[in-house]
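Standup notes
- DV: blocked on the single-chain target, sequence here:
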Amino acid sequence: MELAFPTVIIQVAGAKVYVNLTEERAKPDALLHVFAVGGELTDPDTGESLGSSEELIGNLKIVRTFPKYAIAEPVLPLTVDKLVKGMIVRPISPAELEKLDTQAQEQEVKRFRRRF
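- DV (later): unblocked, structure below
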């Protein structure tokens, strides 16, 4: 179903980002990847469309859920001015979350060491 109807940004208003993610699929504080949609990819032999290229531009954090949509906020360094309606949004896997936590801890240690 995600291939036919991907989760996307449906509106950006102020600091809030509205996503077509239902409350059954979105939990507050969950992190999501945001992808900018690029050009269409076509099979050179058959001419068949293979979809579009995507570029990871940052992460969102769910702040509130509703029956048919969720509200999220960008996670720094991503800012709302980089977000537009139609960008694809996907949940971050547990393995990726663990990697992000490790990177955040390493950055905190580096900041601490720089103070001395």
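- Follow-up: The chain has one domain: 9-114.
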